[in-house]
Design brief:
By secondary structure, the chain is an alpha/beta fold. It has 14 helices and 14 strands. The strands form four sheets. Strands 6-5-7-1-8-11-4-12 form an eight-stranded mixed beta sheet, with helices on both faces. A two-stranded antiparallel sheet has the order 2-3. It has a two-stranded antiparallel ribbon with strand order 9-10.
């Protein structure tokens, strides 16, 4: 008889399972240590369509919806018989069979900060606990090669470390590569007359001063986190490997030609390079999807770069033999209203949204969940939440969504207590 590793040790002990299967505590601890969750992915690229794309104008178009709600975009046929997408997604229409499309994810957080926090952590925002985002948990739990950061945000992200502390925050590039140019991340480039030897000497002086003046009293957790972050930063500055990992100009011409010159495509090119070099979690943020005003003008402008970039990323990883090892997740924080407002825009609609998933053990050419005929709400069979998405990402990375952590004040907290792994998602 086996014990599911989707249960925490605490749950097993409370339920009395150990005695029921004839195991002593020591036996169970050895079993848990010897049989970790088997990951289907080694890394995750999380593409955040910040602001919330309109589901009805992109991948969940509804021909049976009232004409006043359908909007201005035409539908085009995809490679999947009977499935149509927006006319401004022609490349994705040809590549959609590489993805799973999840429709009908629903929640009640209608404001951007709350919705993003929910999306990034898999937990409803709470004043009692600031949960860590998925990238920070990944940074804590998974190892990386020397000098390679575990969690990178391109160019920035609202994903926060929460109670894990600043030591597990993201390394933010703050800029994106420019086509045909070496990409030097601020903080990694050695310039202004500095040499590696000078940097090492300064670091030694700083360590001496730190040991002299440091106290171990208040804010020790913050200091510990800063130390961890500082140590990783120093490793990166002194490492050729780290600088090369970020330099997209080193990619082969066959890879570079897949990507357009816009910021979104170049950011996704960098993301693909980083996971190849050992980064475990990369976020790529495409801003501008909050189209309360001129929804169709805004979406047309955004869809082209997204369409080109996401398909190029999949092709890049396929060519490198990495797609099965890297989980790609694409989503906004919510959908947009079926009703078109007086400014020809659509407003926030957390009742339903979609997520695209590819690689990392996820099924290809698969649809999970659904929405009603008008796109107003999930259909009767769909009960998916951001909790479930987070739990599924953790599961793919070999991390237990029910793992118990302790906050700095000693409070026990499960990572995603309400999340259920979408087992249908995985092949």
């Amino acid at each position: 008889m086996t014990i599911s590793h989707m249960q925490s040790r605490r749950q097993l002990l409370q339920a009395g399972v150990l005695g029921g299967v004839g195991l002593m505590l020591a036996d169970y601890l050895r079993l848990a240590e010897a049989s970790p969750l088997k990951p289907s992915a080694e890394a995750c690229i999380f593409v955040h369509l910040k602001g919330g794309p309109s589901h009805l104008d992109t991948l969940d178009m509804k021909p049976e919806a009232p004409s006043a709600e359908q909007g201005e975009f035409k539908r085009i046929q995809t490679v999947v018989p009977g499935y149509e997408v927006c006319e401004h997604l022609p490349r994705l229409a040809k590549w959609i069979d590489r993805f799973t499309l999840i429709r009908g994810i629903s929640h009640a957080a209608g404001a951007h900060p709350l919705a993003n926090e929910y999306l990034f952590t898999g937990n409803r925002p709470s004043p009692a606990v600031v949960y860590p985002a998925m990238g920070s948990v990944t940074a804590k739990e998974l190892t990386t090669p020397e000098a390679i950061p575990p969690f990178v945000a391109i160019p920035n992200s609202d994903m926060a470390a929460g109670f894990l502390g600043v030591g597990y925050g993201s390394f933010k590039t703050t800029s994106v590569p420019k086509s045909g140019q070496p990409f030097e991340v601020r903080g990694l480039a050695v310039s202004g007359g500095l040499t590696i030897d000078k940097i090492k000497s300064r670091n030694e002086l700083l360590r001496d001063l730190d040991q002299t003046f440091r106290t171990t009293e208040a804010n020790s957790a913050v200091l510990e986190g800063l130390d961890r972050f500082s140590q990783k930063a120093n490793e990166m500055i002194l490492s050729d490997r780290a600088r090369q990992a970020f330099d997209v100009s080193r990619e082969s011409p066959n890879i570079l030609k897949l990507f357009e010159k816009d910021d979104v495509s170049q950011s996704l090119l960098l993301a693909g390079r980083l996971v190849e070099h050992g980064v475990r979690f990369v976020t790529v943020t495409q801003d501008g999807w909050d189209t309360h005003l001129d929804n169709f003008v805004g979406h047309k402008k955004l869809l082209g770069p997204f369409d080109a970039g996401i398909t190029a990323l999949v092709e890049m990883l396929e060519q490198k033999g990495l797609l099965n090892k890297v989980l790609i997740v694409v989503t906004g924080e919510f959908g947009r209203t079926p009703t078109i407002n007086k400014q020809v825009g659509r407003d926030h609609w957390p009742r339903t949204m979609w997520t695209l998933v590819a690689g990392g053990g996820a099924k290809r050419n698969f649809f999970l969940g659904g929405t009603d005929k008008k796109g107003h709400a999930p259909d009767d069979s769909t009960h998916l939440k951001p909790d479930d998405l987070a739990a599924s990402i953790y599961h793919a990375l070999g991390l237990d969504p029910q793992r118990e952590y302790f906050t700095p004040n000693g409070r026990p907290v499960l990572l995603v207590p309400e999340g259920k792994v979408m087992s249908e998602l995985f092949a």
